[in-house]
Design a protein that fits this description.
Helices cover 28% and strands 17% of the residues. It has helices at 2-18, 26-30, 36-41, 68-73, 82-90, 111-120, 158-168, 185-191, 201-218, 233-236, 238-247, 313-325, 344-360; strands at residues 43-47, 125-131, 172-178, 222-226, 256-257, 289-294, 328-334, 381-385, 392-396, 404-407, 412-421, 427-429, 432-434, 441-444, 459-466. The chain has two domains: 2-363, Glycosidases (TIM Barrel, Alpha-Beta Barrel), CATH 3.20.20; 381-466, Golgi alpha-mannosidase II (Immunoglobulin-like). The strands form three sheets. The protein has a seven-stranded parallel β-sheet with strand order 5-4-3-2-1-7-6. It binds 2-acetamido-2-deoxy-beta-D-glucopyranose (4 copies). The site of one 2-acetamido-2-deoxy-beta-D-glucopyranose has 5 residues, from α5. Belongs to the glycosyl hydrolase 29 family. Its EC number is 3.2.1.51. Residues 1-19 form the signal peptide.
């Protein structure tokens, strides 16, 4: 009888927790806890793929190839005419952006192969452009007739095929979705009614049905909203959508969102914060956040981007480590070609990141930020901790020639142990002493054989008994 009472008690709690309702206002929507999978994951892959992947062009003046149509139309606001000049020369001035759509063929697209690459990179989630600012949808949207990947171009449900493969590989699947569309006539019509617009036909006829459609069809674990800045969330009806997403949708318990829900929202409303691209504050900010980052300088594939624009694996890992130490997640972008190939240089970076995480992942996944984040002004040593195991990790971007690595922040007990994490699950116990001034540790760096040397010049020390 008593057991039954206890059981009933927990069933009641369970029902209450699962029937949480959220109202369409920011205080209510913001009160929803962030599902834990997101913070635990730390590392995700961003994908920008669309009609812009056909011309695949930008210059360093305005390096975003996925903005091709906008650069073509508004050269003064973007690259001063470089895209227009390239377009005139290559395709002719009469060639419209829409004419690129049939050339978006995706004939080499193999979603299982993409998923395998993402898994090998060590990423735990994927965020794919269901629709960018050009308005072309990578699924068959009823609201985007003849301007979607099933009606033209690939003749394929790219969102559906990739979602299935990514989920099958055991990763979380997210969808990027742009609130506005540069040239959607209904949106432009709304905008012409005033500022703020007095008419919201685009929101009721296009945006809302599309958002509900991708949630119902693909059950994403993450909605990465963007293209928010021209209007406030009152125009976009963002709280109406989010209250439905969190209360009524089939993904209400797992779905995560960001903060790009209107000009009044970034770093304030929604889920985790991503106030601008490549956001990396270098300190704690009291809220979960994400650093969305590019390997080169463009989000969509840019054929005009030289090798020296692509960051090294070491540089990318350093950005990831500093991000995670400060409580952020790292979302690294790839821009596949119109054929559906992830450029080989990007594949290589991802595979190498996976190699490093294969050795050092225990300092990243499921970690939390520590008491101190970094302890040199030149950002060379960063800390994480695992509250389950009690380990504190010092991740160093340097291996001083002096043979001594000084950690300033940790306070060690005399029984503290410090190990260098090495390949093949082999860790090396290192000797250390307390800094003469009482705080800090001097690690005596061991002599390593090639087989003991961690990859990519980033070294993780696992510390026990350190405060
Ligand atoms: C491209 O061609 C159009 C149409 O002839 C012209 O208006 C525009 O100035 C050209 N742009 C450049 C940068 O040459
Ligand atoms: C969402 O769920 C709540 C609580 O169950 C319910 O009151 C509301 O009518 C639902 N809204 C929609 C749009 O289905
Ligand atoms: C940590 O790095 C930041 C820059 O990201 C720097 O401003 C700060 O001084 C560093 N902290 C310490 C204790 O050196
Ligand atoms: C390291 O250990 C983990 C957990 O015991 C195991 O799954 C993994 O295969 C090992 N890796 C190597 C390279 O030996």
């Amino acid at each position: 009888m008593r057991n039954l009472q206890i059981l009933l008690f927990f069933v009641t709690i369970f029902v209450i927790c699962n029937s949480q309702t959220y109202q369409p206002n920011w205080p209510s929507v913001n009160s929803r806890p962030l599902p834990s999978w997101y913070d635990q994951s730390k590392f995700g892959i961003f994908i920008h793929w669309g009609v812009y992947s056909v011309p695949a062009f930008a210059t360093s003046v305005f390096p975003s190839a996925e903005w091709y149509w906008y650069s073509l139309t508004y050269p003064k606001d973007t690259d001063g005419g470089a895209t227009q000049a390239y377009h005139n020369k290559t395709f002719g001035p009469d060639f419209t952006y829409q004419q690129f759509a049939p050339m978006f063929k995706a004939d080499l697209f193999d979603p299982q192969q993409w998923a395998a690459i993402f898994k090998a990179s060590g990423a735990k989630y994927v965020v794919f452009t269901s629709k960018h600012h050009e308005g072309f949808t990578n699924w068959k949207s009823e609201q985007s007739w003849s301007w979607n990947s099933v009606d033209v171009g690939p003749h394929r449900d790219l969102v559906g095929d990739l979602t299935a493969a990514v989920k099958y590989a055991g990763l979380h699947m997210g969808l990027y979705h742009s609130l506005f569309e540069w040239f959607n006539p209904t949106y432009l019509q709304d905008k012409s009614t005033g500022n703020p617009p007095t008419q919201k036909e685009y929101v009721s006829e296009v945006l809302f049905p599309q958002l509900v459609d991708i949630v119902n069809k693909y059950e994403p674990d993450l909605i990465w909203s963007d293209g928010d800045w021209e209007q406030t969330s009152a125009y976009w009806d963002s709280t109406l959508f989010l209250s439905w997403l969190y209360t009524n949708s089939s993904v209400k318990n797992t779905v995560v969102t960001n903060d790009r829900w209107g000009s009044d929202c970034r770093s304030k409303n929604g889920g985790y914060w991503t106030p601008y691209d490549r956001f990396n504050p270098g300190k704690l900010i009291g809220h979960k956040w994400e650093n969305c980052y590019t390997i080169g300088t463009s989000w969509g594939y840019n054929e005009n981007e030289p090798l020296q624009e692509y960051q090294s694996t070491t540089a990318l890992l350093q950005a990831m480590v500093s991000t995670v130490s400060c409580g952020g997640n790292f979302l690294l972008d790839v821009g596949p070609t119109a054929d559906g190939v992830i450029p080989i240089v990007m594949q290589e970076r991802l595979i190498e990141i996976g190699e490093w995480l294969g050795v050092n992942g225990e300092a990243i996944y499921d970690s939390t930020f520590w008491r101190a984040q970094n302890d040199t002004a030149d950002e060379l040593i960063w800390y994480t901790t695992n509250t389950q195991t009690g380990y504190v990790y010092a991740i160093s971007f340097v291996w001083p020639d002096s043979g001594v690595l000084e950690l300033k922040a940790p306070v060690a007990s005399t029984s503290a142990t410090i190990e260098l994490i090495g390949p093949n699950n082999n860790s090396i116990l290192v000797s250390w002493n307390m800094n003469s001034n009482g705080q800090g540790i001097n690690i005596k760096l061991p002599t390593l054989t090639p087989g003991q040397t961690p990859p990519f010049g980033i070294y993780t020390f696992r510390m026990m008994g350190v405060k």
